[in-house]
Amino acid sequence: MKTKPLPSTASPSGGSRCLFSTSDGRQCTMLHHESHPSLCPFHARQERQLLDSAAIAAELASLSGEFTTASDLSHVLGKLFHLLAQDRIPRRKAATLAYIAQLLLHNRHSVQLEIQQTHGFSAWEETLRRALPPISSES
Q1: SS (HEC) of the chain
Q2: pLDDT range class, residue 133, cuts 50, 70, 90
Q3: Could you state, in order of their start, the residue ranges of all structural domains in the chain?
Q4: pLDDT score of 5 more than 60
Q5: Mean pLDDT of 34-59
Q6: Whole-structure pTM over 0.85, yes or no?
Q7: C-alpha closest to that of 12 among 39, 37, 31, 38
Q8: What is the pLDDT of residue 67?
Q9: Closest listed residue to residue 19, CA positions, set 50, 42, 52, 53
């Protein structure tokens, strides 16, 4: 059985092809993007998202490190909005995270009641103090 030689990565117009290949050996046929030395815009964005995932996770951390207050969840949703607008995370992942935030927000009142009934109202106030940054009194 004859095997075909792999196509050249150079295009007729002088540009080169994306060097991304799948696990089964298929090669991307798009031209590489001028802002990346070897990948097309689609695969360059995937690479950027993968390399940036640790920074994105840190950006999505809530104010208190927990997700018990409305302020925590609002903060995270705001960060999620910015990351999506900057095209730093895929739309599908953003939708999943927003849905999880909605579930957490829906459950927040139960968490508040549980803390108050178990440890008293002062424990809930302490949870809020830890979660919310102090308000500066500049006028």
Answers
A1: CCCCCCCCCECCCCCEECCCECCCCCECCCECCCCCCCCCHHHHHHHHHHHCHHHHHHHCCCCCCCCCCHHHHHHHHHHHHHHHHCCCCCHHHHHHHHHHHHHHHHHHHHHHHHHHHHHCHHHHHHHHHHHCCCCCCCC
A2: confident
A3: 15-50, 52-131
A4: no
A5: 85
A6: no
A7: 31
A8: 83
A9: 42
